[in-house]
Amino acid sequence: MKLLIMGAPGAGKGTQATALAERYGVPAISTGDIFRYNIANKTPLGVKVKAIIDAGEYVPDDVTEEIVAARLAEPDCDAGFLLDGFPRTMHQVHFLDTYLSGRGEQLDAVVSLLVEPEALVQRLLARAEIEGRADDNEDTIRRRMEVYAGQTAPLLFHYENKRLLVEVEGTGTVEEVRQRMFELVDARVEA
Ligand code: AP5
């Protein structure tokens, strides 16, 4: 099973990714988590991307694609994966399409979590108070949302045209969203 989970900043990708990955027995791979791990550990990659991420901009495609390629080459991805936060640009879409077609594989479904923009800002401001994530301040949140709208939201048309898109209303409790997502993804992959 090869899945993507997409959505604006704060839509709930990370919250829902683990359960969805467990349901289908595949690893959940979050590019944001990989970058934050490297930043926390002050690795060369972390040093390179920290200011970019703190400003709410996207890490360059070549850097991001290199870490995704390395992660997908690990044995736990042999039976599939759930990518959270990748792809985010058309270049990354082509990278993934090329990677999969080179292996004679294709995606099974692309989950898109839908939440109103103001609700997203409130969620991320609330998280800033609890977790203190460096990019969860109001200016950076709004910049992340602009970058998402300009560069990532259009990618959904690509997956809609490929009949892979599973749109999930992302408002409600975490459990409500999860059940809604499970039902829709189950129906898609069993169809
Ligand atoms: P990333 O970590 O992917 O950040 P993001 O897309 O901004 O998403 P978040 O992690 O903020 O939100 P989420 O949708 O995962 O929601 P969550 O479940 O956490 O990327 C960070 C940065 O890394 C990017 O800005 C970029 O710079 C860089 N990067 C990453 N990938 C890249 C790529 N491919 N190319 C280039 N650069 C890349 O939930 C948010 C909050 O809401 C939490 O507090 C949660 O508890 C709460 N919540 C979740 N669900 C609900 C609910 N149903 N009701 C109420 N609250 C909820």
From TrEMBL:
Q: Which source organism?
A: Tessaracoccus bendigoensis DSM 12906
Q: Which EC number applies?
A: 2.7.4.3
- Key word Acetylation present: no
Looking at the record's lineage, which domain of life comes first?
A: Bacteria
Positions bound to AMP: 31, 36, 57-59, 85-88, 92, 133, 144
Cellular component, GO annotation: cytoplasm
The annotated pathway is: Purine metabolism; AMP biosynthesis via salvage pathway; AMP from ADP: step 1/1
Q: Where in the cell is it found?
A: Cytoplasm
Show the segment(s) annotated as NMP. Answer: 30-59
Per the record, the domain comment is:
Consists of three domains, a large central CORE domain and two small peripheral domains, NMPbind and LID, which undergo movements during catalysis. The LID domain closes over the site of phosphoryl transfer upon ATP binding. Assembling and dissambling the active center during each catalytic cycle provides an effective means to prevent ATP hydrolysis.
Q: Does the keyword Transferase apply?
A: yes
Q: How does it assemble?
A: Monomer.
Question: What are the binding positions for ATP in this chain?
Answer: 10-15, 127, 172
Matches recorded under Pfam families = ADK
Under the heading SUPFAM superfamilies, the entry gives: P-loop containing nucleoside triphosphate hydrolases
Q: What is its main location?
A: cytoplasm
UniProt similarity note: Belongs to the adenylate kinase family.
Cite the entry's keywords alphabetically. Answer: ATP-binding, Cytoplasm, Kinase, Nucleotide biosynthesis, Nucleotide-binding, Transferase
Q: Which reaction does it catalyse?
A: AMP + ATP = 2 ADP
**Molecular function (Gene Ontology), one example:** ATP binding
What is the recorded name of this protein? Adenylate kinase
Give the protein's function.
Catalyzes the reversible transfer of the terminal phosphate group between ATP and AMP. Plays an important role in cellular energy homeostasis and in adenine nucleotide metabolism.
State the top-level EC class.
transferase
Any one biological process term the GO annotation gives: AMP salvage
